[in-house]
Amino acid sequence: MFFLRKFIAATLFPAALCAELMAIGLFFLLMTRRKSLGKIFLSAGILFFLLVSQSVVSDALLRPLESTYPTLQEPGRIASKSPKSIRWIVVLGGGYSFDPDLPITSRLSPASIYRLIEGTRLLRRFPRSRLILSGGTIWNKESEGKGFQRLAIALGVDKQRIILEEKSRTTRDQAVYIKKIIGNDRLVLVTSASHMPRAMAMFQKEEMNPIPAPTDHRVSKNPSPVYMRLIPNADALVKSKRSFYEYLGLAWAKLRGDIN
Q1: Is the domain of 86 the same as that of 33?
Q2: Cα distance between residue 29 and residue 34, in whole Å
């Protein structure tokens, strides 16, 4: 079921949808007599591609997700207001590819590296805290949590301050397993800004009270003129994929009752 869900989700991402629409259009144009229907599907695929590969559109899709929670710029204020000192910095995995021929910095995805760096920054601001690195295995022989740990130690983090969670494969799993580790203790939750709404909802579903620390923002103030952001580009397509991924994830979680 897990892998089937992954496969179905992949077919609903922008690039795949564009290809599917155009493939259907070509089929009707070349293999049937329904040429007009073929032209409609082909035109829809091209138009959809032009839209999701523009920065104006991709930013509009992603911005609501990334702006849901503010960044944790001054963690010292959070600690002073909290009735208990912050004991846990939880970093959620964002992608890992185990390849021993590559340096550890190339095995973690950019999202994972951003998350780990932010977690390490916060760890240093909360001297009594420990770092929980969360992520299991899906395609790899080594867990994402272990990959996190390797890079964290390489960056100077004391191994004694690291706890691994290596069983999870989904955000829902992470919330459940981390709950078992820390109980009702206060935690700072580190993940990508676009992923934070779904992650917060799932941790709150487990009756936890995380402090959001979003990172890996893809949308920022852009001084370039609007007409430049209307030109199709690969970065915009990546941002559109990220927004589709999260909106689908939120819809699925709501459907399953994983979030309120």
Answers
A1: no
A2: 7
**Domain containing residue 114:** 71-215
Number of structural domains in the chain:
2
For residue 192, the SS3 value is strand
> Residue 76's pLDDT is what?
62
pLDDT > 90 in the chain, percent: 81
> Taking the model in full, what pTM does it have?
0.92
Does one domain contain both 90 and 194?
yes
Please tell me whether residues 83 and 200 are part of one structural domain.
yes
Assess if residue 224 is contained within a domain: no
Q: How many CB atoms lie within 10 A of CB 162?
A: 18
Residue from 144, 152, 88, 150 nearest 120 by CA: 152
User: What is the rounded distance in angstroms from the CA atom of residue 144 to the CA atom of residue 138?
Assistant: 9
- Where do the H-state alpha helices sit in the chain? 2-10, 14-31, 35-52, 55-66, 75-81, 104-107, 110-125, 144-154, 171-182, 196-205, 226-229, 234-256
